[in-house]
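Assess this one:
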Amino acid sequence: MNFKLKMVFTDLDRTLLRDDRTISESDYTSMLRLGQLGIIRVIATGRSPYSVRKVIPESFPIDYIIFSSGAGIYDWRSQKIIRRHHLSSRQVAQAIEILLERNTDFMVHAPIPENHRFYFHGDGEDNSDFHQRIKLYRKHALPLLLPATINKSCQIIAIFPGTCYREYLKIMDCLTGVNVIRTTSPLDHRSHWMEIVPEEVSKALAAAWLAEDLNIPRENTMGIGNDYNDEALLEWTGTSFMVANGPAELKEKFRCVSSNQENGFSEAVNAELETLSDQ
C-alpha cells in the first residue's frame, strides 16, 4: 500500500499518556506500526526533555520530540537537540514587569537544555496548582530575587486558578512581542497556565519547520491532541483529531475520538490509515 500519511504528531499528557502517566499496549503497538510503515512519529508536548524522560523510556518507538510547546526539537534517535529558541533579556524583563504589576504567580525557566529549572515568584494565595508545581520541581526551583536580571529564558509560565480566566485575558492583552499559549494545567486539570514564549514558538511552527526539514508536505501529516495548546498544531496538520477528554469547543472543531483512557491515539491512527488504504 502506498500510504500518503508520512508524519504523525501527538500530544503527550492526557493524549498519548493515560491519567496514570502510562501508555497502553494498544497505543504502543500503534507507534510500532507507524514505524514499520516508515511514518515519522513526533511527540509534541509542553514538557521539557528532562520531564519527558520521566515518562518515556529511551527505547520508546518515536523519532522526534517537540518540547516546551515548540521552544525546542529533540531528535530521539540521536538524543540531540536540533532546534531551540529563547526569550531575550529584554522580553523577560518586560514580561516580569507586567506580571509583577498584576500580582501574578509565575515561573521563569532557564535556557534549554536546563529548562526544567526555574525561578518562581508569588505568594500563591488561593493558587494550589502553583505550589504543587514548585513542590514537584523542588530540587530545581528557586525563589526569584528582585530586581531580577536574567539573560535569557526558555519560557515564562504564569499560573491562574480556574476562576481567574478574566485576569488571564487582561494580562495577555498587555504582552507584546511574544507568543502567549493557553494551557490547562496538567496537574489539577482546572487551572490556566499562560506560557510566554518567543513569537516564533508554538507546536505548530515547530511541526512546520520539522516537516519542511524532512521534505514532508503538510497534507501528508496527522495530529492529535487534548487541549488549547494543541489547537494551532491541529489547525496546521493535514488531518486532525481531538480526544474525548478535550474541551467541548475543541471537540466541535476537530474530529473526536475516544479518550486517552480508551486508546484514542490508536483509534485516530487506525481511522487515518484505513481511510488512506481505501483511496
Notes: The chain is about 30% helix and 25% strand. The mean pLDDT is 95. The CA atoms of residues 185 and 191 lie 5 Å apart.
